[in-house]
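TASK: fixed-backbone design
INPUT:
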């Protein structure tokens, strides 16, 4: 296989730019939904009757940053692959974000309900 043949083979497997943006945009809305919910939870927890301590600020700010970082990582891993692989990588990142988000909600519920002691 010559260099020209390998270049043609690589070029044939690359997705068109409009498809990359369409897939990334549609699945990016789900990531953005989690970020929006994390911002809302931070605002409500910080404005609550107990407020937030240092750990609470760290955890809830990390809940905002983590979906953005997961999306960026999944996009970086998948944008040069085929469409199906790109979608699977982004959905896998979204599943990781969903598991993390459930942990954040459990943390917020435990502290909000006073299950972890009073501070």
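OUTPUT:
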């Amino acid at each position: 296989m010559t260099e020209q043949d390998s270049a043609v083979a690589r070029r044939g497997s690359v997705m068109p730019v409009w498809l990359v943006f369409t897939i990334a945009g549609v699945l990016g809305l789900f990531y953005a939904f989690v970020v929006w919910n994390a911002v809302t939870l931070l605002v409500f927890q910080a404005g609550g009757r107990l407020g937030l301590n240092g750990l609470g600020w760290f955890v809830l700010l990390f809940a905002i940053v983590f979906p953005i970082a997961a999306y960026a990582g999944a996009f970086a891993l998948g944008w040069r692959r085929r469409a199906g692989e790109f979608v699977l990588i982004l959905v896998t990142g979204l599943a990781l974000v969903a598991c993390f988000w459930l942990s954040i909600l459990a943390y917020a519920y435990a502290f909000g309900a006073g299950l972890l002691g009073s501070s």
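COMMENT: The helical segments are 3-13, 17-46, 54-78, 83-112.
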